[in-house]
Amino acid sequence: MNNIREDAIKVINEIMENSDIKEGDIFIVGCSSSEMIGNQMGTSKDGETDAAVDALYEVINESISQKKAYLAVQCCEHLNRAVVIDRKIAQLCDLEIVNVIPQPHAGGAFAVKHYNSLKDPVVVENIKQKAVAGLDIGGVMIGMHIHPVVVPIRLKNKNIGRAIVLAGRYRPKYIGGQRAVYDTSLF
Predict the structure, then answer these.
(1) According to a count of CB atoms within 10 Å of the terminal CB, is the N or C end of the chain lower?
(2) Which residue from 86, 168, 170 is spatially nearest to 135, judged by alpha carbons?
(3) Domain spans of the chain, in order of start
(4) What is the pLDDT of residue 136?
C-alpha cells in the first residue's frame, strides 16, 4: 500500500498547488477502490481494498483538513452518486439529507470509510455544485458536484495505484464580450 500512499501524496499535492482551495471550501472525491488495486470497478471482494482505502483516505483527509476545507465523498451509482458529508456542511449549504448508510457494494468502500470517520455523517442526494475542486479516482464522474465552470487540473501524476485519476477545479464564468476585462487571479 506504500505505492497508493505515495501516489496519493503526489496527486493531492499537485491539486493543492493548482487550485485555490480555501478555508470552508468543499473538495469532492469519487473513488473506485477496485480500480486502485487493478480490478474492474465494483468487483472487489469485501475487505480486499481496505488497506488501499485507509492509505488514500489518510492522505486526502489530512491535506483537506490542513486547508480547513471540507471533504465530501461521492457514492457509487448504486446510490445515485449521492454524497457523504458532515451534517454541519449539509446545514450550512441547506442540503436535503437522505436516509441511507453507504455499504461497500452500495456506495463504495471510500464512501463507507468517510461515513465511518465523520463525527456526524449524513448523506445528501447532491451538494448543489458547491465543491470548488475534486478528484476522480477510477472514472467515477464527479464533475456534477463541482461549481460551474469546471476546468481540468492537468496532472503530471495520472494514477493512484492502478486507477487513472482526473482532477478539476472551479473557475468563475466569463461574461461579457470583446470589451470585458477579466481578473487573471481567478483563472
Answers:
(1) C
(2) 168
(3) 2-186
(4) 96
